[in-house]
Amino acid sequence: MSKTNKIELITLGCSKNTVDSERLMSQLKANNFEFVDSSDDADSIIINTCGFIDAAKEESVNTILEAIELKKQGKIKKVVVAGCLSERYMDDLKKEIPDVDSFFGTEKYEEIVKDFGGQFSYDLLGERLVTTPKHYAYLKISEGCDNPCSFCAIPLMRGGHVSKPMDMLLDEASRLADKGVKELIIIGQDTTDYGKDISGKRNLSELLERLSNLKGIEWIRLLYAYPSHFPDDVIDTLANNPKVLKYVDMPLQHISDNVLKSMRRGITKRRTKELLYKLKEQVPGITLRTTFISGYPAETEKDFLELCDFVKDIQFDRFGVFNYSVEENTPSYILSDPISADEKEARRAELMKIQSEISLEKNRNYVGKTMNCIVDDIENDFYIARSERDAPEVDGEVLIKAENKLLKLGEFYPIEIIDCNEYDLFGKIK
Ligand code: SF4
User: Fold this and answer.
1) Candidate of 142, 145, 193 to mutate for ligand 1, largest count of ligand atoms within 8 Å of Cβ
2) Contact between residue 400 and residue 428 where contact means Cβ atoms under 8 Å apart
3) pLDDT (tens digit per residue) in 225-281
4) Is-contact 410 135, C-beta < 8 A?
5) Which atom of ligand 1 is nearest to the CA of 155?
6) What kind of fold does domain 6-124 have according to CATH?
7) C-beta 259 within 6 A of ligand 1
8) How far is the CA of 388 from the centre of ligand 1 (A)?
9) Domain parsing of the chain, residue ranges
């Protein structure tokens, strides 16, 4: 069987890269290219890279080198590198890995299609080849970021904040709904900034309301909110629109005023707590997810203990911690990297330990309750489902023993929770 026109597209990094890959795939598919899951069946490999922090950069470079090795062995003909890493380090990569056939930055769909000898189609702009389970999809509502966070290289790779026009997003979302998508996961670098560059004011809540009117869309989940300008009307939408899940992912990065100031987060400890209390009060039962950085250069032992007290006080439902990665050309680069890798890891582990105890307590509250869950997959005699509290890939799951009951993937079911551990819930069909 000939391998011509068969591409393995490897997507690294975040869900925004997933959306970029899906957009590129629909264009290449329209030019008779086929996508395969393994390089064994491929003629070409496209790597959509991540350039966020050291670990991600390393993974991207290793993936490129593996593809080049296959090319040297004559197993594949073409290697194309795109995305954040090549946006940020294109000249270095061209010098260091000359065997790559072509390098592209972020969102260079037209150039890549032409590089494969194809025709780019503007009619397909809202079209995506969904790579997530068919019943949920990410909706990237903006690109880039205007926030000045001192540690972050994303604006260097993705530029300033650009909202995607609302009618284009509604078109994209309704095409996804037509394909069976029931859950839309709203992403961007800063979703709360949506609309300010188009209509002069932030109108994320209007977008959420209009998306919730689309036929077939049942769940809308908000990720990547920014604390310093969280719109009040979004809180109303979270509280009152049954299709907009009572769930917010809002990376806070830290809480001590000393560190928040050095990080240029544009918010204080007092205002952060006010916002969190307001969300909890006005949206009862809300699920709060956040992210912190451990070992930021200006973080003292006292700052770290303050952060530990804060997470014990607020009781987040979900959080992740990244160890600080010193990134050239970011404002905090001049602070160097005074906290050792071991110390960063020790602080990260301490925070995760505190959180696992909180998470277990919170999960215990759901035992005996019935939750509306969507079934994502089946694995080792268990159906993998998620409740309103669980974003895919980053949060816990609801596991249901696949006894003799046949559950359909992508369908909602009332699940009675019978047990839990610190991350997952165990349930049975009600
Ligand atoms: S909000 Fe801050 S951390 Fe997030 S992408 Fe923008 S600059 Fe980076």
Assistant:
1) 145
2) yes
3) 999 999 999 999 999 999 999 999 999 999 999 999 999 999 999 999 999 999 999
4) yes
5) 7
6) Rossmann fold (3.40.50)
7) no
8) 26
9) 6-124, 136-364, 370-429
pTM above 0.85, yes or no: yes
**The CA-based dihedral angle spanning residues 245, 251, 257, 263, taken in that order and rounded to the nearest 10 degrees:** -150
**Alpha-carbon dihedral 217, 223, 228, 234, rounded to 10 degrees:** 10
CATH number of the domain located at residue range(s) 370-429 in this protein = 2.40.50.140
| Ligand 1 pocket residue status of 147, Cβ below 6 Å | yes
Nearest alpha-carbon partner for 166 in 222, 132, 209, 123: 209
How far apart are the C-alpha atoms of 152 and 148, rounded to whole Å?
8
Q: Is 306 in the pocket of ligand 1 (CB under 6 A)?
A: no
Alpha helices in 213-294 (DSSP H): 232-240, 257-262, 269-282
Q: Does the beta carbon of 263 lie inside 6 Å of ligand 1?
A: no
In CATH terms, the superfamily for domain 136-364 is tm_1862 like domain (3.80.30.20)
Identical fold between 6-124 and 370-429: no
The string of pLDDT tens digits covering residues 135-176 is 999 999 999 999 999 999 999 999 999 999 999 999 999 999
How far apart CA 48 and CA 81 sit, in angstroms, is: 6
The answer to whether the CB of 193 falls within 8 A of the CB of 148 is: no
Which residues, listed in sequence order, are joined to residue 291 by a DSSP beta bridge? 320
Residue 106 Cα to ligand 1 midpoint, Å, equals 17
